[in-house]
Predict the 3D structure of the following.
Amino acid sequence: MTKKVVLVTGGSGLVGSAIREVIAGERPENEEWIFASSKDADLCDPASTAAMFEKYKPTHVIHLAAQVGGLFANMKYKVEFWRNNIAMNDNIFQECHKRGVEKLVSCLSTCIFPDKTTFPIDETMIHDGPPHFSNEGYAYAKRMVDVQNRMYKAQHGCNFTAVIPTNIFGKHDNFHLDNSHVIPGLIHRGYLCKQKGEPFTIWGSGTPLRQFIYSNDLARLMIWTMREYQEADPIILSVGEEDEISIADVARSVAKALDFQGEVNFDTTKADGQFKKTANNAKLRKYLPDFKFTPFDEAMASTVKWFMENYETPGAVRK
Ligand code: GFB
């Protein structure tokens, strides 16, 4: 059997690091895995992207590299979220096509779905109306990946597809206090509040609802997608609707994992963003009825333990 050479862009990020950890445990025989980061290439630049593909000559690509961020970063940098993601994706698609890459798996997010829609959301609803205003730059750029998959298949017969995870969390995340997603943002702020003996302030009302997938679970599902999933149409990778949780309950889980005993309050002057984006995982369950997700509090405890063990190590935690 010919060996697969799998190139993972964004290989040192939240999901890339989790895939690296899973593959290190598996040590697959007929697969060589390459985890590329921004040190390898500027994916916004066609020549730099082409040089990286020339160096690694991948047969398969998992494209994770993207400009990502939480609600507040999305609201602040809409133009960059649009321009950088559009540029990176165009260069990756063109290189994969030009070099006859056998499979490309891109990563979207449930925030790309229409804001005003019926719930639960499923894969057929991507283009049924505008996304939430807070992340339109990112959402429209990522919606184009779904369009690009179909176009490259129709015109060139390419086997390009995409996964649509819900909010992701885990080790190696971006813990920047302002630009991060809610879980890493709360872990970092909670940790500092505990050290200083200050109240732990949660942004917004705490009422919005989210589904969270642990990076290690997503990593296992993305490896399965690369090996087994044969559709061009995307697939939602998410816990079930029954596991949807409020931001206030997320904050309680963070406080418990940090062993924070102080006062917890809410700053309602801060935006709540989208109230909910409930997704159904029926398509995933059709393929993998027995897939086991890591219990939320267990995944939270591992993430907080990793954060606290690495916080003081220079360069170990993005913050
Ligand atoms: O993860 P998050 O920033 O993004 O979560 P979205 C935002 C929710 O958490 C809002 C509340 O309801 C915030 O009010 N929140 C409370 C906080 N404390 C904090 C905090 O310290 N930091 C942050 N960031 N939020 C993103 C999209 O939407 O979802 C992205 O903008 C991407 O494009 C991502 O798709 C997965 O879930 O609202």
User: Anything to note?
Assistant: The radius of gyration is 19 Å. Residues 70-72, 74, 109, 111, 134-135, 138, 167, 180-182, 185-186, 189, 202-204, 208, 210, 247, 270-274 surround GFB (CB under 6 Å). The domain at 4-168+211-239 is CATH 3.40.50.720 (Rossmann fold). Residues 20 and 277 are 29 Å apart (CA to CA).
